[in-house]
UniProtKB/TrEMBL annotation:
The lineage of its organism: Bacteria, Bacillati, Bacillota, Clostridia, Peptostreptococcales. It is a multi-pass membrane protein. This is YfcC family protein. GO terms for cellular component: plasma membrane. It comes from Lentihominibacter faecis. The chain crosses the membrane at residues 12-33, 82-106, 118-137, 143-161, 168-187, 199-221, 263-282, 294-314, 326-350, 380-404, 425-444, 456-479. The keyword Cell division does not apply.
Length: 480
């Protein structure tokens, strides 16, 4: 009898498995990498600012099995603010969906764009890119995924197209952001330079990044619209349609776009405008007509909670029904909330092991005596590594800039080169690192496996990384 040939196909591990594996690897490294610390400007500050040249070894704290178990739990506790934010967004979106306002808007949009659906991609991607370049929109994109992905699926594309438009679109703007208060502003402050320094280089990068991202996404969208079997998520196409569109979706048989539903959409849109107004550091942008509110996740959660109540009042939803809908919507994003907390465990175990500063010191030593061009390229690579372990843009800027930026003086280049390398590397890593809680949360929200996402995005990221290094090296050669 002829032996039946069996084909074995590698399956991408579950996202939780990937993150726990990284936590375990860091725990093993804690037995190898010595403990170290810098002196800090204010040891009691929420964000520690290290003093360059003060690194010293300290007793190491190797992490064992119990530490590996506790890391994601501690990470979850440290991420309560963003976790609650995610849950409230889930309830808010579910409530707005229940009113039929979004379905009505989707139907109206699809009818107006009949035959021109492809134009949604450059239009929306440009909006998200500009938002990323202007004020570093990242976590703020969360509510847009369940709103916009159904539109792309209804137009004949797949969930990856919607994911690309929002996630990649925003990230490309953040990579060369001109006034991101969470990255450029903080990094410039610690580097002792103006946010305007290096703006010409950033604009050049934006003029490369954004068109490249749009062309990349449109090429994929046209390919799968012509032949749906070429979609990387074709195997789950029906499941995605059911999840995002519900049963029996028909763009010609959607709720009427009534005045009540228009009012609900106005409230929906205003809630996001208020969110943006509250988080932006207007003083740093030179705007004085209103105060900088300094809002973050607690206040944003309150905005969406109040907006939920207003929507319920407009649609005359009773209290019991309101609570049922809201809780079910929050439950839909529970997996997103959990994975964000688990991903935070990587930085927890690094901090507990006292190896974060040691890693930073290794990077400081690596670039301390390089030529200008090599310095620029190596800085980018170093920030890719640092961003993997410290994905927070503000956290990485606070930890690294006071140490890395003065090294530019010895290399004979402007400190803005270090900042551009940092912001572009950090934003790129946010598109592919499993240690980035937001990315893993978005993938969970959109029913996309990490392996599928990597297959989709890796070629674009290789191109972006190559272009970034070339631009930084050329800038050093021409300007300094």
């Amino acid at each position: 009898m002829e032996k039946e040939k069996r084909k074995f196909k590698l399956k991408t591990p579950n996202s939780y498995v990937i993150i726990m594996a990284i936590i375990a690897i860091v725990a093993v490294l804690s037995w190898i990498i010595p403990g170290g610390a810098y002196d800090y400007v204010d040891p009691n500050a929420d964000k520690l600012e290290p003093i360059a040249g003060t690194f010293h070894t300290i007793a190491s704290h190797p992490q064992g099995l119990w530490s590996v178990i506790m890391a994601p739990i501690t990470g979850f506790m440290d991420s309560v603010d963003i976790i609650l934010y995610c849950l409230v967004i889930g309830g808010y979106i579910a409530l707005v969906m229940k009113t039929g306002a979004l379905d009505a808007a989707i139907g109206t949009t699809m009818k107006r764009l009949e035959g021109k659906e492809i134009m949604l991609i450059p239009t929306l991607m440009l909006i998200f890119s500009v938002a990323g370049a202007a004020f570093g929109i990242e976590e703020e994109t969360l509510p847009f995924f369940p709103v916009l992905i159904p539109i792309f699926i209804a137009a004949g594309y797949d969930s990856l197209v919607g994911l690309s438009v929002i996630k990649i679109g925003a990230a490309l703007g953040v990579m060369a952001s001109i006034a991101n208060p969470f990255a450029v502003a903080i990094a410039s402050k610690f580097a002792g330079i103006s946010m305007a320094d290096g703006i010409g280089i950033r604009i050049i990068l934006l003029c490369i990044y954004i068109p490249t991202g749009i062309i990349f996404t449109m090429h994929y969208a046209k390919k799968i619209q012509k032949d749906p079997t070429k979609s990387l998520v074709y195997a789950q196409a029906e499941e995605n349609k059911k999840f995002f569109l519900g049963n029996g979706f028909d763009k010609n048989d959607l709720p009427e776009f009534t005045l009540k539903r228009k009012l609900i959409l106005i409230v929906f849109g205003l809630s996001f405008l208020i969110m943006i107004w509250g988080v932006l550091s207007w003083e740093d942008l030179g705007v004085t007509i209103w105060p900088t509110m300094g809002w973050w996740f607690p206040e944003l959660t309150a905005v969406f909670l109040v907006a939920s109540i207003i929507v319920a009042i407009i649609d005359r939803i009773k209290v019991d029904a309101f609570m049922d809908i809201f809780i079910k919507g929050a439950a839909d994003l529970l997996s997103v909330a959990i994975i964000i907390g688990v991903a935070r465990g990587v930085s927890v175990i690094m901090s507990d092991a006292s190896i974060t500063d040691t890693l930073l010191h290794y990077c400081e030593t690596a670039v301390s005596s390089m030529s200008s061009g090599l310095f620029a390229g190596m800085n980018y690579l170093i920030f890719l590594v640092l961003s993997f372990f410290i994905p927070s843009s503000s956290g990485l800027a606070t930890l690294s800039m006071s140490i890395m930026s003065p090294l530019a003086d010895f290399a004979g280049v402007g400190r803005e080169i270090v900042i551009i390398a940092y912001q572009s590397a950090n934003a790129m890593i946010s598109l592919i690192a499993p240690t980035c809680g937001l990315l893993m949360g978005v993938l969970a929200m959109t029913k996309t496996s990490f392996g599928t996402w990597v297959r989709f995005v890796w070629k674009l990221l290789v191109f972006i990384a190559t272009v970034t290094v070339l631009v930084l090296v050329l800038a050093c050669m021409i300007l300094y």
